[in-house]
Amino acid sequence: MAYSGKVIDHYENPRNVGTLDKDATTVGTGVVGAPECGDVMRLQIQVNPDTGVIEDAKFKTFGCGSAIASSSLATEWLKGKTIHEAEDIKNTQIVEELSLPPVKIHCSVLAEDAIKAAIHDYEHKNGLEHDD
Ligand code: FES
Ligand code: FES
To answer: Where would I find the NIF system FeS cluster assembly NifU N-terminal domain in this sequence (predicted)?
Structure first.
């Protein structure tokens, strides 16, 4: 299967690979797995508690090139957004940006799920839960 140039670029030069302190109250961690293939993605955000702005984002993905590219792109998009803006990131935006083919759509779903899980973790740690 042919990967798009953007997927290859993110795969070869992944942005923001790394780890934030998962015990910090300002850090939210999301770990999700894809039942389709067994790939696993960990995505973390560091939030300014006064503004709700995501100041840093890191990921580690044990998975296919599209999953790595989706999470790399997600960390780029997350930085500078508020957690509420970040909740609106959709896997379809990732599919479009990376030109993912149908068999790779679940890789972008993994990234959306990881973003949501990281936000939830941050919210739960800080007593900010809301229901959706
Ligand atoms: Fe499963 Fe990409 S093939 S995450
Ligand atoms: Fe915030 Fe669901 S994304 S509670």
So the answer is: 2-126
